[in-house]
Amino acid sequence: MASKIFRAVILGPPGSGKGTISQRIVKSFGLKHLSTGDLLRSRVRSDPEIGLLAKQYLDRGYLVPDHVTTHLMLRELKKMGEQSWLLDGFPRTLAQTEALNSIYQLDLVIHLNIPFETLKQRLSARWVHPSSGRVYNMEFNPPHAHGIDDITGEILIQQDDDKPEMVASRLRQYKDVAKPVIDLYKTKGILHTFSGTETDKIWPYVHALMSGRISPLNIEAPVRES
Ligand code: G5P
Ligand code: MG
């Protein structure tokens, strides 16, 4: 298979498993993973100007304004240069989609379609390692030691926007803005939708789709990951 630059997006509502599936894609296919949520949260910690502005939105579970998000993401993509990547959570609005399309041609859009009840349950049990963005779930993929990141041994936190009232607001907002983005990628013929309630059942299909487009790092069949 040709080793051309491969550009993909994974989109879906909060808690749909974008981060979890992205981690598996990175492990299997070696793409560079860029999560908008992780990037924005890292700016909140490190950049007094953009960070302070972004924090006001993140804390309320609102989308950060398009011009801020788009500027940050396109700058990161430029820094990455000529390498294959997977964007997680970007684009999320039509304006972001148009800005991305004007510079890059995507090979594939993975769309996760997960029932909203499932999403609410998952997010309330989620813990993250802030500096890497690694996600855990106390039932689905718990850390080896309670409250501790498996790789670094640092403590895990529960994000403010995973609180129940914030989750409801994030889900409502997603519904409104995602439809035109999904429709646009459908029209372009690059959208692949995966529906279900379990990431482990969806993952083999995502792996098979990706394997037809980009060489896996090894050729073993996908196995359930913990
Ligand atoms: P984020 O950080 O991008 P969201 O809202 O898109 O946040 P989130 O919450 O990160 O999405 P996810 O990545 O789709 O969810 O899902 P995940 O973290 O992999 O899985 C959720 C939980 O379920 C985890 O605990 C995981 O272990 C568990 N899980 C996975 N699969 C299963 C399963 O099969 N079963 C079970 N039981 N559990 C499972 O964005 C945050 C904020 O940043 C801003 C917004 O303010 C946003 O609210 N932002 C943007 N603003 C403007 N434009 C953009 N493009 C923006 N992107 C982010
Ligand atoms: Mg995520």
Topology readout:
Layout: E1 7-11, H1 18-29, E2 32-35, H2 36-46, H3 48-58, H4 66-80, E3 85-88, H5 94-101, E4 108-113, H6 116-124, E5 126-129, E6 134-137, H7 164-188, E7 191-195, H8 199-211
Parallel strand pairs: 1-3, 1-4, 2-3, 4-7
Antiparallel strand pairs: 5-6
Bound molecules: P1-(5'-adenosyl)-P5-(5'-guanosyl) pentaphosphate and magnesium ion.
Task: Describe this protein's structure.
There is one protein chain. With 226 residues, this protein is α/β, with parallel strands linked by helices. The chain has eight helices and seven strands. The chain has one domain (7-211): 3-Layer(aba) Sandwich (Rossmann fold). The protein has helices at residues 18-29, 36-46, 48-58, 66-80, 94-101, 116-124, 164-188, 199-211, and strands spanning 7-11, 32-35, 85-88, 108-113, 126-129, 134-137, 191-195. The strands form two sheets. Strands 2-3-1-4-7 form a five-stranded parallel sheet. A two-stranded antiparallel sheet has the order 5-6. Helix 1 crosses helix 8, helix 4 runs parallel beside helix 5 (94-101) and helix 6 crosses helix 7. The longest helix is centred in the last third of the chain and has 25 residues, at 164-188. The mean pLDDT is 91. The structure holds P1-(5'-adenosyl)-P5-(5'-guanosyl) pentaphosphate (G5P) and magnesium ion. Magnesium ion (MG) is lined by residues 18-19, 35, 37.
